[in-house]
Amino acid sequence: MDVTFEQLGTFIDRLPVGVMVVEPPMDLKHVNERALELLGIGIDHLLTDGVDGAFSDNRFSSMVNEIASGGSDAAEVVVSIGGRSVQCSARAGEPADNGGRTVITVLQDVSRIRQLDQIEREFLSTILQQIRGPISGLHTAASVLLESLPDVSDDVRELLSLSYRETTHLNNLLGDLRDLFVADTGKAAEELEIEKMPVERVVLRAVHALRDSIESEPPLHERIYLSGETREVVYADFEKLKTTLQVIIRNALQYSPPDRPIEVRAVSLDDTVTIEIRDKGTGIRRESLSRIFTRFFREDNQINRSQRGSGLGLYIAHTWVELMNGSVSCESEVGCGTVFYVSLPRGEGRQ
Fold first, then answer.
1. Residue 203: which H helix or E strand, with range?
2. Closest-CA residue to 340 (of 284, 288, 275)
3. What are phi and psi of 83, to 5 degrees?
4. How far apart are CA 5 and CA 19, in angstroms?
5. Rounded Cα distance, 228 and 276, in Å
6. CB within 8 Å of 284: residues ≥ 6 apart
7. Among residues 48, 178, 194, which one has the least CA distance to residue 126?
8. pLDDT tens by residue, 53-111
9. Do 19 and 104 meet the contact criterion of CB atoms below 8 Å apart?
10. On the chain, which terminus has fewer CB atoms closer than 10 Å, C or N?
């Protein structure tokens, strides 16, 4: 059954969301009452000033023009109108009579949602700050007691060791949650301090930091070796890159037998240096590879079931590297091992 535009317009007028139908070049074809309410103007005003005049934020007209011209099929922006946060979701419609495509835009008031998001962010920020201090204090106390009381009973030493391990785990978890919070609130880029550094220096610092949290036999310096062009220089945030390498190397150690080495290799090509972390461990199933950089994902296997983890490490590492204008990827084969590739902009010179 054919539906006329007039009949469709009657349906649109009854919707609880704003709807605006625009034809190129920004000519209004239809608008419902809810859209006018969200825009805070009357139909006469809209017809007089045009669609562009209804939005002081030019992102809306840019979005509509891009879709109308075929540059994209759908897009979304949130604009501020009269103290409201209005979400504008646009999608391409039928070809327009005068060329281009009709654009259908749905407008919704998301002010309350954004307000609740802000409250949630402030709450999480406060909780993370309030909890991390005491946990760090307990972790330090357990460490000091273990080193300064060599003659305590086995039961007391076991209790102190348990306290140290548990507070280490909590500290790592709170660190992951804090980094997740920063990434999800869009503040991650503000924390970056990009500088030039040799690959070798940041890799060695990452391995050194792992010694304090991983008990390994043989020692880490015997299991991990560097190769390739490790004196090449990259542009990165030192601490964020160190954390990224720690996450990947820790996983390589966790999923590899102690008698199999971990290779950290640097390869330079044109304007990019790629750090390859290669292990000969259990490998990752093909169906899991596309999900390993998503948050909270942990592959269901015997090793993961026996060890605790947040499932956030690779997600956060991926976020940091992309913000440093780099990329992270992975290749793996079950039973043969895994290779992670961390590619970053190449700096000038070698050290």
1. helix 199-211
2. 275
3. 85, -5
4. 14
5. 10
6. 292, 299, 330, 332, 334, 338
7. 178
8. 767 677 888 888 888 888 888 899 888 877 888 888 989 888 877 778 888 889 888 88
9. yes
10. N
